[in-house]
Amino acid sequence: MAALVDTGPMRLKAEQAADLLSLPKSFVWLYGGQGAGRDVVLEALQERFPDKLAVLRAAPLTSPDAVAHARLQLAVLARDSSISLDLLPGSTVETLAASLRHLQKRDRILVLRTHPTWDDPGAVEQTLADRAASFIRQLGFALREVPMLRVLVLANSRRRGALRELGRRAQTELNLAIPELDARALEDETPWCSLSGDFRHVRDGLGGNRPTPSQLRLGVALVSLGDPPAEVARLLRSLVNQEHAQLEPLIQRLRPRLAHHGRAPILRRAAFARFALPWDKLLAAVPELEELEDLVRVGLGYETSDGRVRLSEPVRRALLSDGSRPERLADADLNTHARFAQTWAQLDGVASPQMLEPSRVIPWLEKMHHRCHSGGHTREYLETLDLPAPEFYWDMGRALSREQERFEDAALVYRRCWQKFEHDDYAHHYYAWNLDRAARQPEEVEHHYRLAIEERSDNVWWHARLCTFLIHRARFRDAEETFRQALVTLDPAEVEVHRDARFARSLHRWVVEAWLGMGEVERAREVLALIPTEVVSGNDVLQALAARVADAVEAMELGESVYPASLPIEERWRQPPFVPEEEDGRTLVAWHPGRVRRVDEVGVELVYVESPEQPDVRELHGLELSLADWRAWARGRLPETDAFVIVAEYAQGLKRLFHWPVRRLDANRTLVNEELDSLRYVHQWLRTTA
Amino acid sequence: MIPAARLDALPSPLPAELLFLFVCGPGGATGKGAEALALALPGGGWLTVDSCKVGLDLPQERIISRWRRSPAEPLLVSVLTHPHDDHAAGLGDLLDRLRPPLVAVTGNPPPEQDLARRVSELLSSGVTSRDIASGTVRAALSAMQNLVSTGATRLVPMRDGETLVPGPARVRCIAPTDSEIRSLLGALPRHRANELSTVLEVTWGATRLLLGADLPWKSSGGKVLSSGWDSVDTRHPGLASHQGLKVPHHGSREALHPGLLGSAGTSPRLWVCTPYELSDLPRMNPGDGADQLLAAEPRLHLTKRPHQRDKAPSGTLSIGSLRPAPGARSLKTAPPDDPLDAVWCFAFDDTGQLVGRWRGDAAVEVIR
Fold it and tell me: What are the residues whose beta carbons fall under 8 Å from the beta carbon of A348, sequence distance 6 or more?
């Protein structure tokens, strides 16, 4: 980083923060966006306050163990050697305040290094976000109960959203600006090593403009991955001097680039690391990175001054979810997690959290995390699993479920969790969900779905999943009653459903999709109608859902589909542009949308709609054509069952058939596999396969 | 034939000493399905055969709840003659609501194999109307699995010779045979699932009813099928000798076997047919299905006038008034307003007499 950035301004900001933190009761909120240099500030502060800083580094909230991660760090930072880790299984304001008092007694400065995902927990799974929000609230209250403790929060943004509670005590906010590219950086190819050619190409296209270091690094990485340098340079130029130094447009280019790149699986494995590691350690975990060293060290990632390699969170997310791969991990991925676990184990050096000291706590937590994701856990091991905090069970349960599709084993893990932590709604819910996925013990599934709701009645997901479970079980009356009850519990005054789209996306959307999957169009329409029109129109997912329902209602009312599902409703019932006004010198008289219903040796059966432009008198008609007639009408194109066509009538009885161009279904539409998956109990019963 | 009364006039609870056949369909108004039967057996007990849905209402549920002889009168069995959506629409819901102790489907033991054969056809096709149809079958299968797995219901296989309900009023299956099931199972494409339709025979004293489901006689190309009505006629000669017939396959020409129709005799036979509007069945063109039926019997009971939404005040229409206009065939669906509009109900005693007819507001009888 030093080669691209002048760290002077960061160090100055660190001095400013240090001066403030020298005062008793001080609470400083220092914030800056991606690449602003919070680690440089932290290093400077560590030099200024040797052995005084107690640094808590938050893990990404996308990981289920994130809150336990923070709790354990705080517990270890705060404790005397004799203190047990009360905070590990859960926290209250009192237990947190007790830990903070220990820190204060030892005259420590608490540094909370938040993670970007904690700033906007709305972007992660609701339960994890709620759990984080609750922890943040508790910690905020606890911090107010220990007013003498000095605190520095290193955040991505100002105090807002969920983090507002944390910073109530803060007297000062300091903004760490995104650094400019060092003036000499564009002249110096040295730091780029084998990427220097890519760097030159990008630089030459910049026309003297100077993007931020993070932008330039990502631009060079894109070129290295095969993006045309001129396009990358043009994008970088467009980002220069914008009010906010944006990375997102570059990330948007990175995703599709990775989707087709042969090295993407290797880079993805590098992104399994949630915390920076020295290059040799990273290489030990992902040996295939050797050939991509420069791309990782100076392109996609960067090296901290102490020699650790870090991927920024946006880059890491892009590498992990480029959208082209299923979440299921390959054996090579599982092995990588196992090697990461070994790597961190070498750094933590302890077998039990009771023996942890502050410098070892993150390695221990990362070891636990990667072990959860490394596979290879036998049923016998899982049956006796005993972990110190619920979140560790969640992390393992989710890994088994999502990454390995070992649903029964995942259920076992969640069962162990609620056996130990009986009020854990998350464990009850995902125990049920994984049993359901495995199509096992439906009574048990329902019981634990309901227990989760009892424990946490305000969790929208818990209600939605119970509703869709009942629909898929064809228990329609129970599903309707459960949905009605969910609305009464969650939104009795219909405030949430009007507030924004999140509520309807979490509840109504899934219920509508489940009804559609069971052919229950009227019920789907009724549930959709509960979402205010303005909420639907303001959200892509809900709009796509409304289009599906409208398409289904249209098909039901006509009796047959005569338009492709992918064609938006508002584009139907008007003359399509590919139907010419004149054929063989004859004028178009009428056109009718239709579909080939059947093709056999006798001929072709077509259905089509008369009077398409008059909604009130539209009427479905059928027509049986000989193969010879079909060929004449369709100009030789072979008939195919379910092809969507326009039947065009021209003067003097000339008939023509025009086919709709193939269009992709909306990306938000439920996947075919998911629809079929609703039959998993039936498959098991009938011994058929999905 | 005994005059028809309005369905509203049908006494509730039903007299226990008679056999009642309710024929319903089509569904619609975002409900769906074409045919659903309910049988009230003399002495007590109900059967349902297939299902349809009007809006969110299930005509069979309405019928049973309104006319059952006592609150404890059981539903004995629900039959799914074949897993096509025009016969399975709403069945999932119906099973969940009525929880019959037996569900019968075509098949040799184990009965699941007939259903298993269909599962692979429930893949999403990308054509919405077909996917909705698949969804209804998915719901029916899920409901069956749910009831069977909880022990509430037993799945029973239906094949020629299998008695579904013993006793004075006996319900038994007369098609298909076990060998037909063996040879056709797994080989039939979805659109030919009709060939494995369960045909039921209800006998009580001198009374005989045939419920023909969608069993065909010929293929759509006009070729006589080796299974189907030819086979039934060979095994069970005298098919034409019956008091009541639920006309097979919505009166399509390909289902009207001469051995089943016979010729008009001295005592009129009760023939009832549900229209399947999406295939314009029964066809009213000269010489087509409806004409063939009317050539053998003077009356054809239709649960609804095809393609028309209006009620049928007179209740009797001549075939001439139903002839289609030349040109393309209308496939317009015109669902009934009320779940009990497209319904015919007939009562029989055990001497072979039809003793009562009741019609919903949309039901008609068609005469020559």
Answer: A356, A360, A361, A363, A364, A367
Mean pLDDT of chain A: 91
B107 to chain A, minimum CA–CA distance in Å? Answer: 13
CA distance A60 to chain B (A): 37
Q: Where are the extended beta strands (E) located within A232-303?
A: 277-278, 301-303
Number of Cβ within 10 Å of residue A293's Cβ equals 15
Give the integer Cα–Cα distance in Å for B151 and B142. Answer: 14
Q: Tell me, what's the ipTM?
A: 0.93
Q: A684 versus A292: which is more confidently predicted?
A: A292
Q: Would you say A230 and A242 are in contact if contact means Cβ atoms under 8 Å apart? A: no
Q: SS3 of B80, please? A: strand
Q: Given B133, B142, B329, which is nearest A682 (Cβ)?
A: B142
Residue of B nearest to A680 (CA): B142
- Put simply, the chain A residues between 521 and 550 with a CB less than 8 A from any chain B CB are 521-523, 525
Sign of CA dihedral A631, A635, A638, A639: negative
The pair of structure tokens assigned to A408 is 């029964």
Residue A541 token pair: 């997912």
Question: Is residue A667 scored above 50 in pLDDT?
Answer: no
Long-range interactions of A585-591: CB distance < 8 A, separation 24+:
A586/A650, A586/A651, A586/A652, A586/A654, A587/A650, A587/A651, A588/A648, A588/A649, A588/A650, A589/A649, A589/A650, A589/A651, A590/A648, A590/A649, A591/A646, A591/A647, A591/A648, A591/A649
Query: Is residue A325 scored above 70 in pLDDT?
Result: no
**Residues A259-277: pLDDT tens digits?**
888 999 999 999 999 999 9
List the structure tokens of A595: 């579909």
CA B353 to CA B207: how far, in whole Å? 7
- Residue A110 has a pLDDT of 97
User: Which runs of E-coded beta strand occur in A514-660?
Assistant: 582-583, 586-599, 604-610, 619-625, 644-650, 654-659
